[in-house]
Design goal:
The complex is a heterodimer.
Chain A: H1 2-25, E1 27-31, E2 42-47, E3 53-57, E4 67-70, E5 76-85, E6 90-95, E7 116-121, E8 134-144, E9 157-160, E10 173-175, E11 181-185, E12 190-191, E13 196-197, E14 200-203, H2 204-215, E15 241-243, E16 255-258, H3 263-266, E17 274-278, E18 281-282, H4 286-295, E19 302-308, E20 311-317
Antiparallel strand pairs in A: 1-2, 1-4, 2-3, 3-6, 4-5, 5-6, 7-8, 7-10, 8-9, 9-14, 10-11, 11-14, 12-13, 15-16, 17-18, 17-19, 19-20
Chain B: H1 15-31, E1 35-39, E2 46-51, E3 57-60, H2 62-65, E4 70-74, E5 80-89, E6 94-100, E7 121-126, E8 138-151, E9 160-166, E10 178-180, E11 186-193, E12 206-210, H3 211-222, E13 230-231, E14 234-238, E15 246-251, H4 256-259, E16 267-271, E17 274-275, H5 279-286, E18 294-301, E19 304-311, E20 313-314, H6 318-325, H7 344-347, H8 359-375, E21 386-392, E22 397-402, E23 407-411, E24 414-418, H9 429-446, E25 453-461, E26 467-474, E27 480-485, E28 492-498, E29 506-516, E30 519-529, E31 532-543
Antiparallel strand pairs in B: 1-2, 1-4, 2-3, 3-6, 4-5, 5-6, 7-8, 7-10, 8-9, 9-12, 10-11, 11-12, 13-20, 14-15, 15-16, 16-17, 16-18, 18-19, 21-22, 21-31, 22-23, 23-24, 25-26, 26-27, 27-28, 28-29, 29-30, 30-31
Classes of the chains: A alpha+beta, B alpha+beta.
Chain lengths: 327, 546
C-alpha cells in the first residue's frame, strides 16, 4: 500500500512542484500606506515584465511615495506607481529590479470550472521578510458575469472554492497546474446584504488589457487630468467632483475624477486627492464626505482640505451660480 | 415495492484516481483511532489530542488544557476515559497527557517534519466545533501553504516560531489535533489559525507546531516538567548585505554566549548545525529548543570564524513560568463551574507539586533511568579503587585511579591529583576533566544517594546532537553534573560536569561500550571543555571495584 501513497504523492508532486517553484518567485510582497481600520498596509503583486513591472490591486495602500516591493529572496525595492485603472481597480508599479522570472500574459484561454489552481498571496502578512508567500489550493468554481446588482466589477470574475480573499491577499497570483497565470486575487469584497465574502480572481485577460493600455499611455496617470474614459461613478454634485465607489466599509474619500471645466477642476482638485476636511468637518470615508458635502449649499464656496503627495492642500471650490453658469 | 429509474452509466474514471482515493480512505482509517477529543472537566472547553504511545500518552495544545491537570477524553467510537496531565510547554503551546484505562490505544506514528515541502498534501484530523458526539475525528484535506512560519505570542506564551502553515480547514476545536502527511505520519499538532473580522472561523490559513519541535520537548514533557524555551541572551539585527544575515546587537554579559566569547557585531553563520541566513530564520530555529540545551554556534568576526558550544538561557525565570501556567481567574459567568473532584483513577497518577506539571511523572522518570543504569551492571560496582588505562590519540598513555577521596591522573611521569572539597588554586581544563572522572565513579557507585539532589531534567543533546534522557545531580558543595543516558542501551552516554564561576563545563562522551566481567564499560572516551574537543582516548585496561 506504500506504493499507492507514493503514487498520489508523485502525481500531486509532479503537478505542483514546478508551479510552486515558479509561482513563489514571480510574486512580490507590497508594503505602503495604511495599517489603520480596514485599510491594510500590505498586499501582494505580480511580476509581469523582465524590467520589474508589478501588477496589483489599486487601493489606498498605494497612496504614498514609499511603496516597497519585497522579492522572494528578501531583497527590498522601491516601487513607483506608473499607471492606474480606477474602473477595474488595477495598478501598475515599476521597481528597479530586473528579473527573468515573471508571469507571461500572452496567449490565454478561457478557464473552465473545476480547473485546479494554486493561489499565491501574502495573506495576513505571514511572510514578512525573506519568507515565501503562502500557497493555497482550490478549484475554479465558476465564472461570474458583470452584474451591478451583485458586484461592482465591470468585468467577469472567476469564483474560487477556497478562501483566498483575505487581508493582504489582493494582488495575489492564481495559477494553473503548469504555473501559468489565470487571474489575480482581487480586493476583499463583501455583499453586505447577505454578509458573504466573495472569493474571486480578476481574469488574466483583464490584466493583459490594462497593461497594454498603460504602456500605450491610455490609462489615467497619477496627478494628471481626468481620464478620457467614461466613469461609472456619477458626480457627487454639480461642482464636478467624483468620489470613488464605496465598496468597503469606510472607503477613504479619494477623488476618483474631476469634470473638466467644473468649479472643482478650476479650483485645482485632482484625481487621487484624498478629501480629509469638508469645511470644518473631518471626513474619514466616502459616506462621511458625501454627508458633509450635502450640507454645503451649492451656491456657497466650498473649502476642502485634501492630502496630496503626503501634504495637506486647501482647495477653495467656488459656488455654482444659480442656473448653472460660472460666476 | 420501489421503482428504480435506469441510472446513467458511470463515467470512466482513471484507475489511478480510484487507487489514490482508496489509499487515502485506508490511511484515514488507520490514523483516526489515534485522534482523541479532550474535555476540560467542569467547563465547556476542550479540543483534540493525538495518541503517540500504546500505553496512552497523547499530545495536545497547552491552551486546550486550560491550566487543569486532569481531563475526560473521548476515543473514536464513543468510549470516554480519564486522562491525567503529564507535562506542559506553555511557550510552545504543547502538553502531554496520559489516558487512563484499559487499552488498546492506537498511536499515530511520528513523521519527520523536516522533509515536508510546500504544496505537499496534508490532512487535519480533530474535532472542530466539538461537533462529533461519537468522537470520530473530522478530516479536512489541504496542502502545506508555508513552512517555518511565525505567529506572535500572547504576551510570552503560545508563540509559534517554526510553524507549519496549511490551508486544510482548521477551526476552533481542532486545537491539539493531528496534521498528517499522506502516509499517515504525524507531522504537526494543529493549534492556531489566522482569524480576521469574519470571526473565529477558518479562512484558509492555519498553523501547526512541527512534530520535530515536539520531539525536542517530549522527554521533558514525559518527566512531569513545566518546560521553558531557549533564549540566546542576546538580540540580533539584520546584517548589512542586501539579503541580511543575523548580527549580534546587544548581548547580556551574564549569558553563556558572552562567557564563551560572543560579542556585539559578530555575525552568526551557523547554529545547531544549520547555516543561518536571516534573523527570522535564527529565531525560528531557536524557538524549537528547550532552555538549557548546549548547541554549537558559529560566528564570523572580520576575517575569522569561531565555533562555540553554548548553553542556552531560558525565556523566563522559573517562578515566572510557573505562575503563567496556573489556570486563569474564572470569568464571572463561569464562576459557577467548580471543577469536579479528582477521580480515584486519576489520583493514583497525580502528585501536584509547585514547579512541576505532575510530580508523579518526575519521580517515575527518575526511577526508570536510575534503574536502567543499575541494570547495565550485573552486580553493583564496588566502592574500592577503580583504575583506568587510557591511550590518547597522540599515543600517550594515561593512568587514572579513582577512589571516594581522590582521583589521580598519571601521564608521562607527571601526576596530577584531584581531591573533592579542596578548592583548586586555578581550576583548569585538566582539573575539570579529572574532577569529572571522579564524579563518574561516585555517581555509578552511589547513584542518587551520592548527591544532595538528583532530578530527571528531560532530553538533552550530546556532542553529535542526538537527544538523550538526562538526570541532573547537585552535590552538597553545589557542583552540578548532567548525565545523559542512552535510551535503548541504558548506558551512560555523556557526563557534563560544571565547576562554578570562571571555569568552563567539562564533558566526557562515552562510547564503544563492551561487556567485561558482567559490566558495561566504555572503551571510547572523548573530552570536551566548554564544548570544544580537548582529547580522545581509548581504554586499554580497566579495574572496576569491588
Amino acid at each position: 500500500m506504500i506504493g499507492s501513497s507514493l503514487t498520489e504523492l508523485l502525481l500531486v508532486a509532479a503537478i505542483a512542484a514546478p508551479a510552486i517553484e515558479s509561482g513563489a518567485v514571480r510574486v512580490v510582497k507590497l508594503y505602503g500606506a495604511g495599517g489603520r481600520g480596514r485599510i491594510e498596509a500590505y498586499a501582494t503583486g505580480l511580476l509581469v515584465s523582465p524590467n520589474g513591472h508589478v501588477v496589483t490591486v489599486f487601493s489606498a495602500m498605494l497612496s504614498t511615495d514609499e511603496i516597497i516591493a519585497v522579492s522572494a529572496d528578501g531583497s527590498r525595492h522601491k516601487a513607483a506607481l506608473v499607471a492606474v485603472d480606477p474602473v477595474r481597480e488595477l495598478a501598475l508599479l515599476k521597481t528597479d529590479r530586473a528579473s527573468s522570472e515573471h508571469f507571461r500574459l500572452g496567449a490565454t484561454r478561457e478557464t473552465k470550472p473545476a480547473r485546479r489552481v494554486l493561489v499565491f498571496s501574502n495573506a495576513f502578512n505571514v511572510a514578512s521578510g525573506a519568507e515565501p508567500v503562502s500557497v493555497q489550493q482550490g478549484v475554479i468554481a465558476g465564472r461570474l458575469d458583470p452584474d451591478p446588482a451583485v458586484h461592482p466589477f465591470p468585468f467577469p470574475v472567476y469564483l474560487l472554492d477556497a478562501t483566498v480573499n483575505n487581508p493582504g491577499s489582493a494582488g495575489g497570483a492564481v495559477v494553473d497546474a503548469k504555473g501559468d497565470l489565470i487571474g489575480m486575487v482581487g480586493k476583499e469584497f463583501r455583499d453586505r446584504g447577505r454578509n458573504v465574502w466573495l472569493q474571486y480572481a480578476v481574469p488574466v485577460d483583464e490584466l493583459a488589457d490594462f497593461i497594454q493600455r498603460s504602456l500605450r499611455g491610455e490609462t489615467v496617470e497619477r496627478g494628471t487630468a481626468a481620464a478620457p474614459t467614461s466613469h461609472p461613478f456619477p458626480p457627487v454634485d454639480s461642482r464636478g467632483l467624483r468620489l470613488v465607489a464605496n465598496i468597503l466599509d469606510r472607503t477613504p474619500a479619494f477623488v476618483d475624477g474631476v469634470d473638466p471645466g467644473s468649479p472643482a477642476d478650476e479650483a485645482g482638485l485632482r484625481p487621487d486627492d484624498l478629501v480629509v476636511h469638508v469645511g470644518n468637518r473631518v471626513v474619514r470615508s466616502v459616506t462621511e464626505a458625501r454627508e458633509a458635502l450635502a450640507q454645503v449649499p451649492l451656491d456657497k464656496p466650498l473649502r476642502l482640505v485634501i492630502l496630496r503627495n503626503d501634504r495637506l492642500v486647501t482647495i477653495e471650490v467656488a459656488g455654482r451660480q444659480r442656473g448653472g453658469e460660472k460666476p | 415495492m420501489v421503482c428504480v429509474l435506469a441510472a446513467p452509466p458511470e463515467p470512466a474514471v482513471d484507475p489511478r484516481v480510484l487507487e489514490v482515493e482508496a489509499e487515502r480512505v485506508a490511511t484515514i482509517e488507520r490514523v483516526a483511532p489515534g485522534v482523541i477529543v479532550v474535555f476540560v472537566p467542569g467547563s465547556s472547553a476542550g479540543g483534540s489530542g493525538v495518541l503517540i504511545s500504546p500505553d496512552g500518552l497523547a499530545l495536545t495544545n497547552f491552551h486546550v488544557t486550560g491550566g487543569r491537570n486532569w481531563f475526560f477524553c473521548g476515543l473514536p467510537g464513543g468510549r470516554m476515559v480519564h486522562a491525567v496531565l503529564v507535562g506542559v510547554d506553555p511557550v510552545g503551546d504543547l502538553a502531554l497527557i496520559k489516558l487512563i484505562g484499559p487499552g488498546p490505544f492506537a498511536p499515530v506514528r511520528l513523521g519527520d517534519s523536516d522533509r515536508l515541502a510546500v504544496g505537499e498534501p496534508v490532512m487535519a484530523l480533530g474535532n472542530p466545533f466539538m461537533l462529533a458526539s461519537d468522537f470520530e475525528p473530522t478530516v479536512s484535506l489541504g496542502i502545506i501553504s508555508g513552512l517555518h512560519r511565525y505567529q506572535y505570542p500572547s504576551q510570552t506564551l503560545l508563540e509559534y516560531t517554526d510553524a507549519i502553515q496549511t490551508d486544510a480547514a482548521i477551526n476552533p476545536g481542532n486545537s491539539g489535533g493531528a496534521l498528517v502527511n499522506l502516509r499517515g505520519e504525524l507531522v504537526g499538532i494543529n493549534g492556531r489559525a489566522s482569524f480576521d473580522t469574519r470571526g473565529r472561523v477558518n479562512v484558509g490559513l492555519a498553523y501547526a507546531i512541527s512534530i520535530n519541535q515536539a520531539k525536542n520537548f517530549l522527554d521533558h514533557l514525559a518527566g512531569g516538567l513545566i518546560v521553558d524555551h531557549a533564549s540566546l541572551g542576546a538580540t540580533l539585527v539584520r546584517g548589512e548585505s542586501a539579503v541580511g544575515g543575523a548580527v549580534v546587537d546587544e548581548i547580556a554579559e551574564t549569558s553563556d554566549a558572552y562567557r564563551l566569547g560572543l560579542r556585539s557585531g559578530d555575525e552568526i553563520v551557523a547554529f545547531a548545525r544549520r547555516s543561518i541566513t536571516s534573523v527570522n530564520q535564527f529565531k525560528g530555529l531557536l524557538g524549537t529548543m528547550p532552555k538549557g540545551w548546549r548547541v554549537p554556534l558559529a560566528y564570523r568576526r572580520g576575517e575569522t570564524e569561531e565555533t562555540i558550544h553554548l548553553r542556552l538561557e531560558g525565556v523566563h525565570r522559573p517562578a515566572e513560568l510557573v505562575a503563567l501556567t496556573k489556570p486563569k481567574v474564572a470569568k464571572p459567568s463561569a464562576a459557577k463551574s467548580v471543577p469536579p473532584p479528582v477521580p480515584d483513577a486519576v489520583r493514583a497518577l497525580l502528585e501536584p507539586r509547585d514547579g512541576y506539571a505532575n510530580y508523579y511523572f518526575q519521580r517515575q522518570a527518575r526511577e526508570r533511568w536510575l534503574n536502567e543504569l543499575r541494570k547495565t551492571d550485573r552486580a553493583s560496582p564496588g566502592s574500592g579503587r577503580w583504575k583506568l588505562q587510557l591511550k590518547g590519540d597522540d599515543g600517550v598513555g594515561v593512568e587514572i585511579a579513582l577512589t571516594d577521596r581522590a582521583a589521580s591522573w598519571n601521564s608521562g611521569g607527571a601526576a596530577f591529583v584531584f581531591e573533592p572539597g579542596t578548592p583548586s588554586e586555578r581550576p583548569d581544563a585538566r582539573a575539570a576533566a579529572l574532577a569529572a572522572l571522579w564524579a563518574w565513579r561516585w555517581f555509578l557507585v552511589r547513584l542518587h544517594r551520592g548527591f544532595e539532589r538528583c532530578d530527571y531534567v528531560g532530553g538533552f543533546p550530546d556532542a553529535d546532537g542526538v537527544i538523550h534522557p538526562a538526570l541532573e545531580t547537585v552535590s552538597e558543595t553545589g557542583m552540578r553534573a548532567m548525565w545523559l543516558i542512552d535510551r535503548d542501551a541504558g548506558v551512560l552516554r555523556s557526563l557534563e560536569y560544571e565547576v562554578p564561576a570562571d571555569a568552563h563545563a567539562c564533558t566526557w562522551s562515552l562510547g564503544d561500550y563492551r561487556l567485561s566481567a558482567g559490566r558495561h564499560i566504555p572503551h571510547l572516551w572523548e573530552l570536551a571543555i566548554a564544548g570544544k574537543p580537548a582529547g580522545r582516548y581509548t581504554l586499554t585496561a580497566a579495574e572496576i571495584g569491588p
